[in-house]
Hints:
Layout: E1 4-7, E2 10-13, E3 16-17, H1 18-25, E4 29-33, H2 34-45, E5 53-57, H3 64-71, E6 76-79, H4 82-90, E7 98-100, H5 107-116, E8 120-123, H6 126-138, E9 143-150, E10 172-173, H7 177-186, E11 190-196, H8 207-225, E12 232-234, H9 253-267, E13 270-273, H10 277-280, E14 284-295, E15 300-304, H11 313-317, E16 323-325, E17 335-341, E18 350-358, E19 365-368, E20 390-394, E21 397-402, H12 407-413
Parallel strand pairs: 4-20, 5-6, 5-13, 6-7, 7-8, 8-9, 9-10, 9-11, 11-12, 12-13, 15-17
Antiparallel strand pairs: 1-2, 2-3, 4-14, 14-15, 14-19, 16-19, 17-18, 20-21
Helix pairs in contact: 5-6, 8-9
The structure holds ligand LLP.
Amino acid sequence: MNHFQYRRGILCAEDVDLRHIAADVGTPFYCYSTATLERHYRVFAEPLPKDALVAFSVKANGNIAVLKTLAKLGAGADVVSGGELVKALAAGIPADKIVFSGVGKTKAEMRAALGSGIYQFNVESEPELETLSAVATAMNLRAPITIRVNPDVDAKTHAKITTGTAETKFGIPWEHAHAAYALAARLPGIAIVGIDVHIGSQITELQPFEDAFARVVTLAQSLRAEGHAITRIDLGGGLGVPYICDNAPPPDPAAYGAIVAKVAKDAGAQIICEPGRLIAANAGILVSEVLYVKRGQNRNFAILDAGMNDLIRPAMYDAHHEIVCVTEPPPDAPHEVYDVVGPVCETADRFAEARSLPRLNSGDLVAIMSAGAYGAVMASAYNARPPAPEVLVKGDRFSVVRPRMSYEGFLEQDRVPAWLED
Length: 422
Ligand code: LLP
């Protein structure tokens, strides 16, 4: 459930008429709903064991206002870079609720994370363990770690977001786990605290989670028998969301919570979860204006002022996002079939192919739904297009939480070397 609903024929974000934001901020813009973020966080966190840590995956939405909204509910953070660490801390997420994931942490990032006292590093390779140990030892510290194991379970999701099979770069191969833990136990700058797994994203069936988690519990028990202190199990993120309203919905977070609770009981460990999409995707939309409707030879093109630089998911993953009109069409509105495209000079700059929509005209506002996760964070300035600004709504208030970059901002980014100066 989300808080983007028609009221008196106009799409609103909570109590705010999206036309008002468009008039104030210009289009395109991202719009997030506080009530939806809060609701999704609670729906996810409530069925989990009381001592579980819900570490919001900052890669899904790194806006500091969004992070702060979640921090106020008690969320921790899953970060994958020094930049995300800085943002999470700036949003008021306590260091002891931050976990640091990712296959390529640099020494500088390790130092920053150790210096701020994060909860744990999720280590993804033996050389990373050795480097982290050396960095921590030089700081007279021991780095709390889990090792991310790759359970070789197919999450049955898009190939570009599958992470738990042996063919991906993620985690330590299952067969190497015992040796990796033995290495970790020998390293002076390392303190083993648990085990970690993450099998992919936008997973719409529970079975792959159950399979992976069962394997991890068994492994945790055998590692304990070898004397390792496995007191935490990090189950990663990955629970999918409905992108198509009338499709079979992905599993209910309560059913996922029940599986997680069983893992906690079977393993006798603290549970850490790293949800991203589930919290943020349906809490955000991208609002755009129809610039032109172009009648092609075989197709109609609805050309928006938002482009693939703002939202790359359709181009990158063939992702489906619902597109709705901000002014509610009457039930008997005539429909037409459109390719909904952006202004970027790429054929891939297409939000929807052959989509039947109420007849569109220049100047209409449309909302691209489910864009709150992996939307603004993946935006670029390709074609020298300032990425869409971000707006957060709470009740009848809204606030620009990331302004649109000016063209002067572009000019300030580049430097001209001396030999080109006249
Ligand atoms: N933890 C780890 C270690 C991850 O790699 C990810 C996502 C998450 C947690 C959060 O997963 P979520 O709950 O959001 O599924 N850009 C792609 C998604 C990439 C996901 C990468 N890892 C997309 O737009 O679909």
